[in-house]
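Hi everyone, sorry if this is the wrong subforum. Our group has a chain we'd like a structural model of before ordering constructs, and none of us has done structure prediction before. Sequence below.
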Amino acid sequence: MGRGTEQLIKSKIRSISSTMHITRAMEMVATAKLNKLQRMVKNFYDYEHAFSELFSRVISTTEEFTSGLIYKKEPKRTLVVVLAGDMGLCGSYNNDVIDLGYKVAHDLDEKFAGFYPVGARVKSRMLFDEKNVNRSLINVYSTPSYSDVQSFANELTNIYVKEEVDSVKIVHGYPKNPLIQLVKVEEFLPIKPVKIKENAIYDYEPKAEELLKAILPQYLGTKMYRIMLESRVAEQSSRQNAMRNATENAKELVKDLTLKYNKARQTYITQEIIEVTNGSEALKD
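Answer:
Right subforum, don't worry. Here is the predicted structure as tokens:
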């Protein structure tokens, strides 16, 4: 081994160290975003639970409320919304979500009416796979705002009301724990309200039917916001874990290459000593 080998190893060490700094920085960014999202999810879960309970209580008090958004019959045309990320570097998370979306479409068979990808990664892969993509929503990098999510929920509702489809399913990721992110399917439309029986009697002002018409869009927006937050938490958790693993792998590579470099350097030094010694002995003779 000569100086060329040593220089090559040193170049690899510098390159991997530079990459390690990037992955560590990305891990810190993902951690900061994740902490913010986790606080939002924790606070919003309580709100969504209370709002859903209110919705169920109100709809349980009346049999006269009619709406096209309430489940009545078995759907025949289902739109599959696949919600993942706009960016990569989050392990297999995006592909896991997309793969489940494909499975849902396959299981629906003739009832499948097309995909609605949310996220640049989802859209690009579906176009590459030549899937039936009706609409798309991409480049939503920031933390989701309630107003934007409500607009998206209203768009899906309009698609349903116009009878383009009679069912909307959403495929998205959710955090089981900080290390494990799973994917699930949720029925978004039509609504299947869970009626509850209570001994207490409530009087509503305005009437229950008018109140339901007013809170129905907000109920869907609340559900969509929770789905969006869960999806973002799962994405950032996956990215944090992926960048942490990349940093640890880079450390191991640097350690191994440093050992290899020291061995090569020691071999070169030993060879030079031997050459000098042999030359000295030759001069003596």
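For your construct planning: The helical segments are 3-60, 93-108, 120-128, 146-161, 208-284. The beta strands are 78-83, 112-118, 167-177, 180-189.
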